[in-house]
Design brief:
It contains one helix and seven strands. Strands 1, 2, 3, 4, 5, 6 and 7 form a seven-stranded antiparallel beta sheet that branches. The chain is globular.
């Protein structure tokens, strides 16, 4: 379920100076989710926009080497970390693309796990439709426990 076609990284950028990610995914009326979400009112499910942000965070973690020393790393949903999601619009079949921005807030790393927390926005052309606060991705090596 690859939801991103390209990711641009600005090291040291973003609102918190820890990194900035910009990603784009073209959308087409033929995308599988439009035919399956909201009978007679097709839209991209909001959860896929959130998943796209998580995929961008995971890609960044790999690129930054945060998973390099983990034994048999897997990505997990961080437990016990509240996240806020505000939304005010939808991606429709004729919108043409989804864009997202991610501002890295915090990076934690110990011997067996790594966690990244960020604020993010998901856009359709001309409109921010989601705002995510404290969205996170976590990678754990074999045997690692949650923070």
């Amino acid at each position: 379920m690859a939801l991103l076609d390209q990711i641009t990284v600005v090291d040291g950028g973003g609102d918190f100076g820890r990194g900035y990610l910009h990603a784009v995914r073209p959308t087409s009326p033929d995308d599988w989710f439009f035919a399956r979400h909201f009978w007679l009112d097709p839209v991209m499910p909001g959860s896929l926009g959130v998943e796209a942000v998580i995929q961008a965070l995971q890609e960044w973690m790999v690129q930054e080497g945060l998973t390099d020393d983990l034994v048999e790393p897997v990505f997990v949903v961080p437990a016990g970390l509240p996240m806020s999601w505000r939304y005010r619009g939808q991606i429709r079949p004729d919108d043409g693309e989804m864009t997202l921005e991610v501002h890295i807030k915090d990076v934690r790393r110990d011997g067996a796990r790594a966690r990244v927390v960020a604020d993010a926005s998901v856009w359709k052309p001309g409109m921010r439709i989601y705002g995510l606060t404290d969205i996170a991705a976590e990678a754990r090596g074999r045997g690692a426990q949650s923070w």
